[in-house]
Amino acid sequence: MKVLLCLLPFLGQIAAFVKNINMNNRQQQHHHRSGISSSSSSSSSSAAAASASTTSLSAAPLQPGDPVMLVGPGFLQLVLARHLAQAGFRPIIVAPQKKLDSFFTNLLKCGPGDDLDDINKQLRDDSTIGMPEVGDPYFGELKGVVFCAEEAVLPPEFVSRVLDFQDQGRSAFADGRPSRVICCLPVDGKIQKEKSNSWIPIFNTDKVQQDNWNAFAKAFQEHSCYSSSTTSTNDSVGSIVRFGSLLGGSYDGPAWLRDYGIDEGMYKMSLEQYRDMRERAFDRYKLGAQVLLGNTINPKPSNQETMEKTALEDYPNEIREAFTILGDYPEMDRSNRHTVAAGIVQALQVYPTTPTASSSCPKEMTILSKARSELPSPEEWKAMFANPSAADWPDPYLFDPSAFGLQREKEKA
């Protein structure tokens, strides 16, 4: 028997678990790993962990074939796993056992009669409820870590428990420490109050969520992987990727999206009315990216809505509606999960520096979506990392529907 840490569930038990992490003793069959725990049953001593947390980390951009731990749970975690696998990495999904069972039954289907692909099978086989021990697959081989929960369910202690983990005095990471670490956090100051996919009408947990996000962000920013005072890329391997309200992540869009998306059932896994329509629309029309420096959004100019109403008032409704899904029309504070995942894949392969350079990414950046039915190329990501900025808001008076194959004819009076 091993002492296992069941990672936190979603809403309803967040506060209780942050104060008192539930430790469960149970024998695992397929997912036979050591939990992310500070218990003495793990052979790593608190003194060793304390020493590791103050030691600057080794830096090397990750390469295809490297194993990367994805600490969740959430839809973004699953979409990122698909993107990493398509790029040749070995993503390891970390989540509570009940979540893993649900994921591989409903979203990354691996059951009898399912159209199983090799990626889902590999993701299932590599998934785990915690950190590997000596003798487990990937122990001593891990290269990267991405904290990618969509909800504020990870307690701040998880930062050091993952990044500084040891068993029998040995690190689970190939170089004795992670080579690249990314922490995904929600962007602050959102204007559109988009509900999360797990929104439940009878609960109001906004304050608890924000407090938990703040505590986790503080713990990550204070860890040596992020806070190293040196500017050397060999010491600073941690960065923050901020995301807006998350939508999309399946494959109701371009045909090639099927290689990256999770099951379409995710569109309907919300109690919010019409949520599935917005999720699908993002996968069809909002795959483009904006990379903004730091923790920031892209608010509309004060006269944008008035200009759009005036400039497009004589066009049919379908033309007016098309304006916001064409021509790189930006989102203020919303992000497609595919877009965020694609950006993380590229960010894992470069160093985080301040200021950014041609072969690096920002120490902290926000990825938002814009209207485009294709993801950025690796070259486009590099350009956005080197020169992060919000996308320009389009001038509706210059809008030419015929350039997009739409009828330019206006409605007759």
From TrEMBL:
Where is the signal peptide, in residue numbers? 1-16
User: Compositional bias of type Low complexity: which residue ranges?
Assistant: 37-47
State if Signal is listed as a keyword: yes
Q: Which UniProt keywords apply?
A: Signal
Chain residue ranges for the region called Disordered: 27-47
This chain's protein is named Uncharacterized protein
- Origin species, per record, is Nitzschia inconspicua
